[in-house]
Amino acid sequence: MESDLIRIFSDWGLVATFTVLYLSGLGLPIPEEITLLTCGYVASMGAYDPFTASVVAVFGILAGDSSIFYIGRRFGRRAVTHGPFRRFIKEETINRAEAAFHRRRDLFVFGARFMAGVRLVGYFTAGMMRVKYLRFLFLDFLGAIISGPTSIYFAYYLGKTFTIEVIQTQMHHYRNWAVVGIVIAIVLGLLIRKFHRRVNAYLFGNGANGVVSPPATSSATEPISAAPTILALDKNLPDASGMKAPPVAAKDGEELEVELPDDGGPQGESEARVS
Length: 275
Prior knowledge:
This protein is an all-alpha fold. It is built from 10 helices and 2 strands, in the order ααααααααααββ.
């Protein structure tokens, strides 16, 4: 298989890389890892640039995964029980994948990229469970930019010294350690996130239950704003000088004019004008 892929990739270039990766996402019995390693090995022979090959490979992976996602979203279990995919996907496998999906949805979609036997079933289940496409695409993209360029550059640098068979053996060895490292990183991230939530809940919320108390609101009547208002005039209340000058308050920035009656005039009404 590897020699055939080397010949095809050498003759057809990156078009063959995209096509094989796309069909592999739909169930073509060619492992994705072999395709990526072969692509990097051919790049080491000078057929094309490894960076360009990585970009094309990521797009091919996303296109194939999006297609199987759409099939699961559009047809659901009918594609497994009556459609052509019943040869690749068993209904009991869908049941197990669905149970795993309910436990850790995002981790399930992201981790399926690194498990060859789960990948096709995982993305079909994600579509069947009505995951939003942009969310699926983002998680799938995170996995694709890790697995695709890593495999291609790994084979690109080793291809100048070793054969494709040796590269595959070495890749399987390092890939196991890489998967272990990714799992440890994810678990640590989840633990740190949980610890951070508990600390915030303890400091600002309601104990360790993770319930953040809402801001306290006072049931008492709020004091009325101290903004001055014009007081009612009372002509029967004399001021300190004995004159009947009613207390008048003006608003900020306003000019207050008070007119008092003449000495000879009647002790009548006082007028206040606010301008």
